[in-house]
Design a protein that fits this description.
40% of the residues lie in helices and 22% in strands. The protein has two helices and five strands, in the order E-H-H-E-E-E-E. The chain has a five-stranded antiparallel beta sheet. Strand 3 (57-60) and strand 4 (65-68) form a beta hairpin. The longest helix has 17 residues, at 6-22.
């Protein structure tokens, strides 16, 4: 997948959380918590930073895994 910015993903997950809270989508409580954790992490990063989306991870320019979508883990940026 091509490289996109933090702002791109922050917008997507903010919109997803809004839909979850409004009942437009009906994910599990675990998924809602995961969405909130993603937003919390992405909100701390510069919006113009470039990240890469793979099948399982969101990775920063240095190759650090920020989010693992398979295990639903969000890692703090060092």
């Amino acid at each position: 997948m091509k490289h996109l910015t933090i702002k791109h993903f922050l917008t997507i997950y903010t919109d997803r959380l809004k839909m979850q809270e409004e009942g437009i989508t009906n994910p599990t409580s675990e998924m809602i918590i995961f969405t909130k954790k993603i937003i919390a992490l992405l909100s701390t990063l510069p919006e113009d930073d470039i990240v890469k989306l793979t099948e399982m991870n969101l990775i920063d320019e240095n190759g650090t895994v920020l989010i693992n979508f398979t295990t639903k883990k969000v890692f703090k940026k060092q």
